[in-house]
Structure formats: C-alpha cells, structure tokens
Specification:
The protein is α/β, with parallel strands linked by helices. It contains 10 helices and 6 strands; from the N terminus they run E-H-E-H-E-H-E-H-H-H-H-E-H-E-H-H.
Length: about 240
C-alpha cells in the first residue's frame, strides 16, 4: 500500500487591529497561532496620526506581509475598512472579519454608522440587556475582560484620529476569495443581530458566533484561534 505525504501549509495570519491601530490587541492570539505551526504578525497602525488615511494603513499591512504567498488577513472592528484595500493589492488565501465594520466601496467610516443603523441597534440592545445606553469603555469594551487585561489595555491605549472617519474606502469590490465573518455573541458595540444583518446585506455572508464581546482577541483568544485554524484546515 502506498502512503502519500501531505504537505503542511504554513499560513501567515496578518492581524489588523481596530481603532487606535494597536498591535498589542493581538498579543494573546499570536503565540497560539505560532504554537499551531503557522506564522502570525500583528500590524501596528498609525491610528493617532491625523495625516494618515486608510491607504497608509494598507501600506503598513502590505509591508508587514512582504513576500509571503499564503496569507490570511484578519481584521478587527475599524480594521474592516483597511481589509479590502489590502485585498486589492496582494493575493490573499482568505479574509476574516472579526466584529468588523464592513464597508461599501467608497464609503467613509463616519457615514457607515448612519448607513447601517449601528447606533439604533446598540441602543436597542442596551435597553434589552439592561445596561447603559451611554457609551463608556467599561460598558462596551471591557465588560468581559479581567481586571489585569483592562489595566494593560489602558496602558497601551492611544486615540484614533478624527480624520480617518472622513476618509473614503477606495476599493471597487470585495475580493472573490473565501470571506469569513466572526462575531462575539455578547458584543455590545455591534450587537450580534446587527452583525448578522450587515454581513448578509453587504457580503451575502453568514456569521460564525463566538462567546465574548467586542474585543474577542483579548477575552477569548483560544476560541478565536480555533475558529481561524478551522478555516485554514477546511481550505
């Protein structure tokens, strides 16, 4: 009986953070992906630079990817606006959006909220869940994180420029590659029902739900990595 060897495919997971552009956000995910035999790079973006738009963010991501040929781009929250720009410039094996803003071609991040109804969805979820509609980090970002992680997050925190919300996401169409959407079922910023609707309307995609809130890479890194590895194995 002949036994055929199966080549192990090493994927580079390029990890794009959300508002603020802080690579540290992915620090619990990177080692788990590497332990699984893959490569991972968390890209630090100039989120506090008022001169930098999404094109500059995409430049940073493309430079971090370099010459790698097997790339999975994973984008969190505001990172969803950088993702299609990167996909238009380099070939990707797959794209994963995590609690992400999903733009239409030419849309700005500032217009995205009104176009999708995100504020009304957030307020309705707050009333149903019995927590405050007033936006505070403790309520909407940190509610499922340990005190130690919150303290560390606050040390790494930096503001997001206002300019980025006026910058049009200049792409023609989402790429014809596997696109996966992951959402935390306890996300208070972008409630799960809202994310299902936006993914369906804008990508024709379903949502893979995980436990946890908006900052899944900090609150549930193992579950997130297992989902990412599942996409890689299924390929």
């Amino acid at each position: 009986m002949r036994t055929e060897a199966v080549a192990w495919i090493v994927t580079l997971f390029a990890l794009v953070p959300g508002a603020g552009g802080i690579a540290w956000y992915w620090h619990r995910v990177v080692p788990l992906l590497e332990q699984a035999g893959h490569e991972a790079c968390a890209v630090d973006l100039p989120g506090d630079d008022e001169r930098a738009g999404f094109a500059v963010y995409a430049d940073r991501v493309v430079a971090a990817i370099g010459s790698h040929s097997d790339v999975a781009l994973v984008a969190q929250s505001l990172g969803g606006f950088t993702a299609p720009l990167v996909a238009a410039r380099i070939p990707l094996r797959m794209l994963v959006l995590v609690n992400a803003m999903i733009p239409l071609p030419g849309e700005t991040a500032g217009a995205w909220g009104k176009a999708t109804g995100s504020a009304a969805a957030r307020a309705a979820a707050a009333r149903a869940g019995g927590y405050s509609e007033e936006f505070e980090d403790e309520t909407y970002f940190f509610h499922d994180l340990s005190r130690d992680i919150v303290a560390e997050a606050e040390r790494h925190e930096r503001p997001q420029s206002e300019r980025i919300f006026e910058d049009a996401c200049a792409f023609e169409a989402w790429p014809d590659i596997p696109i996966h959407v992951i959402a935390g079922r306890d996300d208070r910023l972008f409630p799960i029902a809202f994310q299902r609707r936006v993914a369906r309307d804008r990508l024709g995609a379903s949502v893979d739900e995980l436990p946890g809130g908006h900052l899944l890479a900090l609150s549930h890194p193992h579950a997130l990595v297992e989902q990412l590895l599942g996409y890689s194995r299924a390929r």
